[in-house]
Every structure is written in structure tokens, then in C-alpha cells.
Amino acid sequence: MRKFEKLTSAVVPLNIENIDTDQIIPARFLKATTREGFGENLFRDWRYNGDQTLKADFVMNNPDYSGRILVAGKNFGCGSSREHAAWAIQDAGFDVVISSFFADIFKGNALNNGLLPIQVTDAFLAEIFSTVEKDHAAQLEVDLENQTVTIVATGAQEGFEINAYKKSCLINGYDDIDFILNQKHLIEEFEQTK
Amino acid sequence: MSKTLVEKIWDAHVVKSEAGFPDILYIDTHLIHEVTSPQAFDGLRKRGLPVFRPQQTVATADHNVPTLNQLQPIKEELSRFQVDMLTKNCAEFGIELYGLGHPFQGIVHVIGPELGITLPGKTMVCGDSHTSTHGAFGAIAFGIGTSQVEQVFATQCLLQQKPKTMKIEVNGELGTGVSAKDIILYIIAKISAAGGTGYFIEYAGSTIEALSMEARMTICNMSIEMGARGGLIAPDQITYDYIKGREFAPAGEEWDKSLAYWKTLYSDADAKFDSVLTFDAADISPMITYGTNPGMGMGIAAHIPATGDQAVSEQASFQKALDYMGIEEDTELVGKAIDYVFIGSCTNSRIEDLREVAEFVKGRQKAENVIAWIVPGSKQVEQQAIAEGLDKIFEAAGFQLREPGCSACLGMNEDKIPAGKYCVSTSNRNFEGRQGPDSRTFLASPLTAAAAAITGKVTDVRTLLNEPVHA
Asked: Which residue of B has its CA nearest to A80?
């Protein structure tokens, strides 16, 4: 897994609540058997018309917005367990997703792939959206070590929670399998007791 | 110390618990299918690892499979490739596969219970969010991502934070035309599509206790639609009776030993839940969703809520959903013309669902403008339906009984609802485009779906239940 470092970037704002995994990557694009290439179908039905032309009013098709941080409304990633959703977001060039609430499975999948989900308060989320609405190139600074997000222009800052173990995985580029494999003897002992 | 049911099962499966780290949780049974497993098998190859406990892993092909002519090669190239890949991977890693043509093939959450693989007290996972279904037996069962599928392949364990617990009690008798699906759609409408996030839910109360196993599965299945990864029900005599004699269920001495353990699986009287909610069955009517998440549901006779009545921050998303669905705030849904009816999915494709639909449509005829699909949850359900003559009843009523799979629940195969069309569906998600690009889904019970097929419109089934039928 890729190591996560401090990030300063402009953002792509998606001010919609309850964005489910079928919007992030529709089921009909889950047929690949590798992890790569899902980015081109990220938010497929919001990005493209039925005839494959771009939908002009969708934020990802607006050249004013770019960056490695996706900012979305609350309950982001609800629905299916498809890890393809995290892969698609990452493959499209994002390292961080910010929302005021995440669905459980999505959050776990993101962390398992080095995509950092940051939960902020509703008020801070609203502040990010309004800042970006005024200045489309406004930047955020994400500091994983100190667990803070800062709106660079105003200096407004909020801390975020992350499980200490998961944080060290992200910073060091470990994954869960490395961790458990080191304790396989415990698993075999446990099986003997069943 | 008194414990909840979740805590009892969880604690019995903790391999290691260390402050500052998630628990290492042992997984008894791992179910896999063709869509979320290939990258996990690839990961094993890259690490040079075998599947640690292949005998505790069961595979089937369900998400991609056609529901007509299943024994012919799959026409759609990518689907065929994915299903073939599962076959190759299972052969290479020594995993039992109930693939197309096998008498045990079917939707993963239908076959586990019907084969006696799903048992009380187990921990079960699958790369599918509706794994919560198996909780109906008093098991800890939840959906996982593909990295975790790989983790379970490699270690038979998961690193997992112990969830918070919620108890949802439903008490009293259900009204006419109201079923398990209506109960769960009602609960989700009450607590929202995110109201259960972070929790495992235990369903209890007299209404739940009176339900059959299949109805309990419908309830637990949709736990994830309020954000809860798992939902479960304490096992009782109804559970034991369902399990006994099934293909892989314990038998003989093993049965007695299992039963003695299962009887310890309940939440202690003074166990503490992090949250407790109570509902009255008398308040539940046949339900239908009007929006684009399962929390946007209402009693079928109600008016669609007004956008202005939503919290200010939610109004834009709410109105976006109504616009997508092509419906107006503060109007009735009853009478709205529909195009498709889909009876199937891991929520409602079991034999009791098919029997209920058959009983209702017998002697009736579907509306001309409606295409009505019935997709059984498994080969065994399909064969049982045929043995009982339900296929003849469906045919006479103009419904098409197809072959088992996930089908139009998520439209990965050819079974898609066309753009702009309305489908009354017994599945679990009404997300934008879920059943096909720009399709519009109304979630409902099998009975409500069947009623819509007959009239060609969204219909309060209670108005038809007393009508004479020309058999």
C-alpha cells in the first residue's frame, strides 16, 4: 500500500447527501478482475449522458475544479460493499475524501487502500463548500500526522479522528494482512480451542 | 457479566484483543461469489499464499448470471469471463463451488441458509453487504470489501473493531397485507438510511418472534440499508426446526451438542445496548419507497412528503430524488402507472415469497402494460416452486418464472429496467440507476409488487385482498 503524506490540494466539491456506491461506480462496471481502470467510470451516470457525451453541469466536467481531495455531502459511500468504489475514486486521482459522515464498509475499504476518509463536522463541511463556491481553486491542507484539515486561505482548521492502528498503517504503508500474518500461531492455537 | 447476543458471539471468536488495535476476529464461514473475489485471489498469488482454510469457504455464481438459458455459455463476454475466473480460482485454491448447473447454485444469501451452512453462533462474512441476512439465525454476519476477502482467505480472520449494539423491538400483531418487508421498510423510513451506522442491530419483540425464518431473513437482510453492517435475531424453536435435516446441518450427536450451545444464544435480561428503539406493529401498513434511498419510504396510502418539510440542508438532495423519480411532492403514489415488476433478490426470492405471490395472482391476470419477472433465489427454490405447481400459476397470470440469480436487483446481467421506466421491486435498493441506467425503482413487499403487476399501477394491496377472484 502507498504511504500517505501531508497533502495540500484544491478540491472537487460534490454537495450531495447519501451518495451511494451505485453512483460512485455502477454495478455494470464491476466486471473487471483487476483493481485498475475503475476511475474512468467513477460517477459514470452523473458524468456522462446516455450517448457518452459529457454532462456539462457535473462538477468533474468543470475545468475550474481539480485536485486530489473529493468533498461530499453526508452519508457518503452508503450501499454495497464493493471495494471498487474506493478503487475508482483513487484511480481517478483522489487521495482524500471529506464528508460529515461515512458509511462503515466504504470507510473501511478506503482505509484498506490508502484512500483517507476524513469526517468533519456539518459546520466545517458547509464552510469548505462555501469557500470553494467563492474561489474554485481554494486549497485545503490535510495533515494526517496531526490529524487536521485546514482551509489554506482562511486558516480555519478542524481536527479529525482516525483509529491509531489505521493511521500507522497509512503512514507506513502496511496493510492488515501483514499484521495478522505475523500472528498466525495465535490463530492456530485458537482453532484448537474450538 | 451480562452480555448482549452480539457480545456473546463476538467474544467467543476473538483470537486477540489488544488496546489500541482492532480485534482479531475468527471467521467460521466465508461465502464468496464472482464479483468481489477475483482481485482477492490475485492478491494471494502476489503474496504467494494459499487459502488458509478452504473447507470453511463456499462459492457460488450469482451476481452476473443470466436468468434464462443458464446452461448455455454466458453471452456477455465480461460476465462470462468473471464467472469462468471464479471456476478457475476455486479449482486452483481448493474451494467448493456451486456454479451454474449445480443443484445448489443460487444467490449466496439464499443458499447458505437453505443448505444448513448458516447456523446460530457462527461468524460469517462475504464480499457483499447483504451478508447481514444470515443474522436471522443468530449469527454475526456482515459484508466486507475485497481487501478483507483476501484477509480471510489468507488468515480465516479479520481485523475488526467491535461494533456498538442497538436493539430494535417490534411488538404486536401485523395488519392484513403487511409482511416482514413492510416491517423493515418502516423501520428504515423511521431511522433513515444512515440511522444504524456503526451498530449491529438485534431485532426482538413479539412481532419478530412470530415470524418464520424466511421472513426473519428479509428483516436482517436490509439492516445495511440503514447503515448497520449486521442485524440478528436470537435463535429459537422456529430456528432449530428450520435447520434440522438440511444438507450440511449438524446431525446425531453433533446436533445435540450444537443445540445445547444455541440455547445459550440470547441477550441477557440486563444486558446493555448502546441504543434501544421500540415500534408498534399496529402502526405499520404496506410500505413503498418513493425516493432514491431506502430511507425514503412511506405507508402506501400516504402522500409523498413535501420538500419544505425536510431539514434545510437536506432539501436539495430530497428534491433531486423526486426529480429523478419523476414524481411530485405532496401527491399520492397509488395509481401511478408502472412498467415492470421484479420479484426476486436476496431480500425476497425464497419459497414463501413465491407461494405468497402465487396465492395472490392465482386466477388473476397481470396488466398488459407490465412485464413481470419472478426470479427464484436458488435452484432449490426454483425446483420447489415447480414441484408445487407455482410455475403454472405464474404462467397463467402472465408472470415469467426465470432461473436463479441476483438479476434485476442490480442489473449486472441482461435483466435491466430501461431508462425512465418504473419498476415495483422486492429487492433492497432504489438508488439512482440501480436496476439499469435512469431506471426508477419503488421498493415494496412481494404482495404489493404482485398487486402492482395485476393492476399496472401502484396499488394498496389491501383493496384487492377481499375482491372475488375468478379461479
From this structure: B129
